[in-house]
Model the fold of this input.
Amino acid sequence: MASNQTFDDYVEHHLPTKAPSKLLLFTEGGRAAIELGLYAATRKILNNAPKGDGHPVLVLPGFMTSDRSTILLRKFIRDLGYDVKKWDMGLNLGGPEYAFKIADRVEEISAECNAKVSLVGWSLGGVYAREVARQRPDDVRQVITLGSPFGGIFEKNNARWFYDFLHGPKGLDISQELLKDILLPPPVPSTAIFTKEDGVVNWQHCIERQESDTTQNVQIGGSHFGLGHNPSALYCIADRLSKDINEWERFNPQGMLRYLYPNFNRN
Done:
């Protein structure tokens, strides 16, 4: 965002104002089921994904979901050799207070394990992960988001109606300064995994406006509901988690793997 550009101007000129199409939304369940089948079919291939070093990984679920939604994702990460931690706060009902609770939990995990914590956040969970990295940069190793609308947290999407039902049509009172911070990349390496077929949130809200040496957008094909078991997402997560904390590199799939990632396949 340019220094002479206000937050409101940025939103007006860069972020879409419409929710994803109802067709994408109504086909989310069926497409996620197909991705689950692909997960089962590619399990042997995924077993060859880069293995872990045992550092702690905290997995954060999306809005109106709980740890049950991340069972397969956490099992996959655990099988790679990481010390996986649950959200452990029941349903994610939304609200900025969660970020402070997660930040305290990250600090505890880091002290207990004597290691920095990688954060993997699905949808709204990824928005929290980025904010927690800002609050506890010394305790966070990296952030990986899955369809997380950090670029337009209060813009129209197909989950907004339920959020308004819970919190009122005016939503939560969040300052302009905090909204600006949400748009900015966290002070640790971060990877934003997104799909242009997302039927819940606009994919344009799920990417960094400008990539850098420590931030990257990775496009996959699939649904929002299937991000936690989508084989392309899982392989990318495995690759990201395996990178040395002092020598983080951008994701760069090789050979046939490039065909799983549209933005690399075009190169």
Q: What stands out?
A: The chain has one domain: 18-265. The first helix runs from residue 7 to 14. The two ends are 27 Å apart (CA to CA).
